[in-house]
Design a protein that fits this description.
Blueprint: H1 3-16, H2 26-40, H3 46-50, H4 58-115
Helix pairs in contact: 1-2, 2-4
Length: about 120
């Protein structure tokens, strides 16, 4: 899949959501819609660590809480490695797209300056 296909797919999704992007340039679409979505997908591990089991009173309650905590930690350990890879990929992709947009804008300014 090349960059044109990616932008086309993103535009189709935005059209399905009711957003008209036909009058906007690719860089405007990237800045307004795609970059904010990518930025929010950078921190995917926060929801894993946010979950806490409620503490219970009494002997059986403490045993239930202890067992539930062990299950939570096991689940976190199992999915953490893959999630960390995905989060790192999301972060690197976001930074790369951000830098490419900035470079594209500076090159457009240089081109406009050369045309004058």
């Amino acid at each position: 899949m090349n960059s044109k296909d990616l932008i086309k797919n993103a535009e189709e999704i935005l059209v399905n959501e009711g957003v008209d992007v036909s009058k906007k340039s690719d860089s405007e679409t990237l800045k307004e819609y795609i970059l904010p979505a990518m930025e929010s997908s950078k921190d995917i591990l926060s929801t894993i660590y946010a979950f806490n089991s409620r503490s219970r009173e009494g002997f059986l309650g403490k045993i239930k809480t202890k067992i539930q905590q062990k299950i939570i930690f096991t689940v976190i350990n199992v999915i953490e490695k893959q999630s960390m890879r995905q989060q790192k990929f999301n972060e690197l992709t976001f930074r790369a797209v951000e830098k490419l947009i900035a470079e594209n804008e500076s090159l457009k300014k240089e081109l406009e300056a050369l045309k004058k």
